[in-house]
Write a structure and sequence with these properties.
Elements (H helix, E strand, L loop, with lengths): L6 H21 L4 H26 L4 H29 L3 H5 L15 H16 L5 H4 L2 H14 L7 H12 L5 H15 L5 H11 L5 H17 L3 H15 L1 H4 L1
Helix pairs in contact: 1-2, 2-3, 2-5, 3-5, 5-7, 7-8, 8-9, 8-10, 9-10, 10-11, 11-12
């Protein structure tokens, strides 16, 4: 549904599509492309239609927001499980190797596995962000970073900058992360997107400008994201436009 630019229509259609795709995947669990689609679908649904809604209502209705975050966490977990099962089936021992501290014992990806690794990393990162009171899960953040790095080694331009943007977000989220390194990732994401992807601008606003308390940069990046989403209509850009507009409306609270 990436070419659909009506968010409400996408929201209404997604639940059936996800359940149907998931049921088909259970019958063909080794199908990499289908596993990629299902993991991507659950991750995007959680982000666009649950987690963002929770953020919007958090100040006025924290109880309802907490319930929505719990639901988003379950959806992210589901997405992560589908991606990891597919990676394990295509490369037996993948999960165990991923947890090895020694880089020489860690797994290597094929080009066909890059999308799955990306969605496994993104969904795990989302799951952690919704479950910050779970120390055991938060301790898995390095696994999300490792999955993203494995994909980065093979195809850094993946997703027209989506992977580079994820690398920047994870770098800015980790303890002792480098803001300069994160900014380089975000700038690469913008370059890979060729001015047609709004997500990297929103990610840079939240990952670089906000921690730096640079309100001018923050507002400029979000306005650029809105302009891009208006010029290049897609579901991803519509989601980013909605987030950018909400962040701009909250700028006095954020700074």
């Amino acid at each position: 549904m990436s070419h659909e630019d009506d968010l409400q229509l996408a929201r209404e259609a997604s639940a059936f599509y996800l359940k149907f795709s998931e049921s088909v995947l259970k019958e063909t669990p080794g199908h990499l492309k289908l596993a990629e689609s299902v993991s991507a679908g659950f991750t995007q649904y959680a982000y666009a239609f649950v987690a963002l809604d929770a953020e919007k209502i958090d100040a006025k209705n924290p109880k309802a927001a907490a319930e929505m975050r719990e639901r988003a966490a379950r959806l992210y977990a589901r997405a992560h499980r589908h991606a990891m099962v597919a990676l394990e089936r295509s490369s037996p021992g993948f999960d165990e190797a991923l947890r090895q501290a020694n880089p020489t014992k860690q797994p290597k990806l094929t080009a066909d596995q890059v999308p799955l690794a990306y969605w496994a990393a993104a969904s795990l990162g989302g799951w952690i962000s919704m479950s910050k009171d779970d120390p055991d899960l938060v301790a898995d953040l390095p696994l999300s970073m490792r999955l993203a790095e494995l994909a980065w080694q093979i195809k850094p331009e993946f997703g027209q900058g989506a992977l580079a943007s994820l690398m920047g977000t994870l770098e800015s989220a980790k303890v002792g992360g480098s803001r300069h390194k994160a900014q380089l990732y975000f700038d690469q994401a913008i370059a890979f997107g060729k001015g047609q992807e709004a997500g990297a601008f929103v990610a840079k606003a939240e990952g670089v400008a906000l921690p730096a308390e640079d309100r001018n940069m923050f507002e400029q990046l979000l306005k650029q994201a809105i302009d891009i989403s208006n010029q290049h209509r897609s579901l991803q850009n519509e989601v980013m436009r909605e987030r950018a507009q909400w962040l701009l409306s909250s700028v006095d609270e954020l700074f």
